[in-house]
Amino acid sequence: MEKVPMTAEGFQTLDEELRRLKLRERPAITQAIGEAREHGDLSENAEYHAAKERQGWIESRIAEIEDRMARAQVIDVSRLSGSQVKFGATVSVLDEDTEEQARYQIVGEHEADVRSGKISIASPIARAMIGKETGDVVEVNTPGGVKAYEILKVEWV
Length: 157
Known about the structure:
Elements: E1 4-7, H1 8-37, H2 46-70, E2 72-75, E3 90-95, E4 101-107, E5 118-120, H3 124-129, E6 137-142, E7 145-155
Parallel strand pairs: 1-2, 4-5
Antiparallel strand pairs: 3-4, 3-7, 6-7
Helix pairs in contact: 1-2
């Protein structure tokens, strides 16, 4: 069973979603299915079919989250330190072509959200930065060609 690295914050987010699905969504969809059944012929009942489809999605998502949580390797970023980039680090970089600065935290795959500055450990830029230190320049193959980034700072936030 392959472990899934994630931050404590990512684990908590999954746990909250699981609770919401089990305690609110699942009972609500069960009730909606019951009400749709009361309307008679199920073969032509769009409400019933939509509710059953939603129920299937909810049950699938619950199973997916439970699997991820069972395989989770929760890493407490607040206990990490050092000058090398590794999982959980928040890295400030400078794009050497555009001179634009960016700040990314390296997180688990399901936690990634580029808009909030979180990139997946499996992303090309994160893989290129792992093991590097402040001042190092990394080259990343992107769809638009090779990009070079200078690591400005490694933090443990």
